[in-house]
Amino acid sequence: MANKTNLNVLFWAIIVALGGFLFGFDTAVISGVEEQIQKLFQLTPFWHGFTISSALIGTVIGALVAGQPADKFGRKPILFIIAGFYVITAIGTAMASNVSLFILFRFLGGIGVGASSVVAPMYIAEISPAKIRGKMTAMFQINVISGILIAYISNYLLRELGTEPWRWMLGVAGIPAVLFFLLLFLIPESPRFLIKIGEIAKAKVILEKIEVAAVDEEIQEIKQSMAQTAEDNTQLFSKIYFKPISIAFLVAMFNQFSGINAILYYAPRIFEASGLTNADSMFQSILVGLMMGVFTLVGMLLIDKAGRKKLLIVGSIGMSICLGLVARTFYLGDFTGSGLLILLLTYIMFFGFSTGAVIWVLIAEIFPNSIRGKGQSFGSFTHWLFAAIITFLFPVVIKFGVGHAFLFFSLMMLLQAIVVWRYFPETKGRTLEDLGTNL
Question: What is the tally of structural domains in the chain?
Answer without folding.
Answer: 1
